[in-house]
Amino acid sequence: MPEERQSNLIFLGELALDGALRSVRGVLPSLIAAYESGYTTAVVPLANAQEAALMTRMNIIAMPHLRDVLHWMRTGERSETIEIDLQWQESSPLLDFCDVAGQPQGRIAAEIAATGGHHLLLIGPPGAGKTMIAERIPTIMPALRLAQALEVTSVHSIAGSLTDRSPLSLVAPIVAPHHTATRIAMVGGGAHAIKPGACSLAHHGVLFIDEAPECGNGVLDSLRQPLESGTITIARNSGNLTLPARFLLVLAANPCPCGKFSGRGLSCTCTSVQVRRYLGKLSGPLLDRIDLKVHIDPVGRVDMARDSLGESSAVIRERVIAARAIAAARFEGLPWQLNSQIPTRALRTTFQLERDAMNFLHDELDRERITARGLHKISRVAWTLADLSGHSRPNRSDVEQAYQLREGNQS
What range(s) does the AAA+ ATPase domain occupy (predicted)? Predict the structure, then answer.
């Protein structure tokens, strides 16, 4: 083998007994680490070709069999250059907000959540449309930037779940673990090789948990760290591993154990104690990190009888993109991109509300109806509402709507 092909060369893959090169997990992050260590050429299995091609700063040699590798090492002959498959399309063409009948509050809350990155709790009876709304939130989120897409691909590569999405899909991921998922399944871990959990797989996307009160003890509370920091740290004897986990959390819950405590609640068979105990499974510290709490009532006959469809995801996404552009211009040169990420100190100095709006929140704080953290959460949501409405600063109307959404009041 010529010396020029031996220098700075790394091999990644699994070798089968018959000489075939099998795909492995974590190719993209491994290549990034290899490049930072000085390697310039990598030989990878053909099955990992699309993923490896994302590392454009290295010379990628993708081969299906060991004999092809030996042939290349002797002659330098290789297959054609791999084309990167950039994909921006809906995660499922069947999912669109136009399918959601009625539910104006749920629609508005989803739009606000997608615009500002605000965490959302949907409360309503079975069949009201909570899951339909949550599953469609990625369809109104802007396309991922290239750097974000690479981060998402790296996490899914480590987890071995790239078969579920294109190697470089620009669609925001949605991960929906079952309510019986364990703490390890939610945040990551493992006895030997550490595997990313649902919160990391939802990085730059949506983590949707249906039947949230049914989750096991401590499972939801384990999300408190990533909700605050955007990362999750897994401790082992050999050291700590920090994985990215900046996601939009969407929780869905029935209003009571039987699920019928809505409207006048005439069909509900639960006692008041059972209702309080059921929703009490969502801890106070977790709920304090939720920006939007919306009650979803069953769809009425008027909404079901309408011939016209509601707004499509494409129309809503245009508003989301426009509002995010306003926020991006406001945050130019600052280390955050979404209203939900504005630090408390910046809310008190650079990004203040109008005086009348601030007085309203201070009055609610004095009456002990909201906490200091709640005041800051409401302020961030108010900024998102202002961006969607075209206001230069949040006014009292924006703050009052944010307050209603934060406290779960139905307007």
Answer: 116-300
The residue ranges of DSSP E strands in 296-333, in sequence order, are none
Tokens of 228: 């605050």
Q: Average of pLDDT values for 236-258?
A: 89
**pTM of this structure:** 0.85
For the purposes of burial, counting CB atoms within 10 Å of the CB of 163, is it exposed (0-12), middle (13-18) or buried (19 or more)? exposed
Residues 286-307, mean pLDDT to the nearest whole number: 81
Report d(CA 127, CA 103) in Å as an integer: 12
| Contact present, 373 and 382 (Cβ < 8 Å) | no
Domains delineated in the chain? 3-84 (3.30.230.10), 97-305 (3.40.50.300), 342-407 (1.10.8)
Beta strands in 124-255 (DSSP E): 168-169, 174-175, 188-189, 195-196, 206-209, 231-236, 239-244, 248-253
Q: Which residues of 169-200 are buried (b: 16+ CB within 10 A; e: fewer)?
A: bbbbbbbbbebebebbbbbbbeeeebbbbbbb
Q: What are phi and psi of 158, to 5 degrees?
A: -60, -40
Residue 209's Cβ-count burial label (10 Å; 0-12, 13-18, 19+) is buried
From CA 308, how far away is CA 310, in angstroms rounded? 7
Residue with tokens 């069953």: 298
Q: How far apart are the first and last CA of the chain?
A: 74
Percent over 70 (pLDDT), the chain: 88
Please compute the mean of the pLDDT values over residues 206-222 and round it to a whole number: 94
Amino acid making up residue 187: V
**E strand intervals along 153-237:** 168-169, 174-175, 188-189, 195-196, 206-209, 231-236
Q: How far apart are CA 235 and CA 315, in angstroms?
A: 44
Give the CA angle between residues 15, 18, 21 to the nearest 5°.
Answer: 35
Q: CB–CB of 403/378 below 8 Å?
A: yes
- Identity (one letter) of the amino acid at 99? D
CA atoms within 13 A on the CB side of 198: 24
* pLDDT reading at 84 higher than 80: no
**Residue 411 binned pLDDT confidence (cut-offs 50, 70, 90):** very low
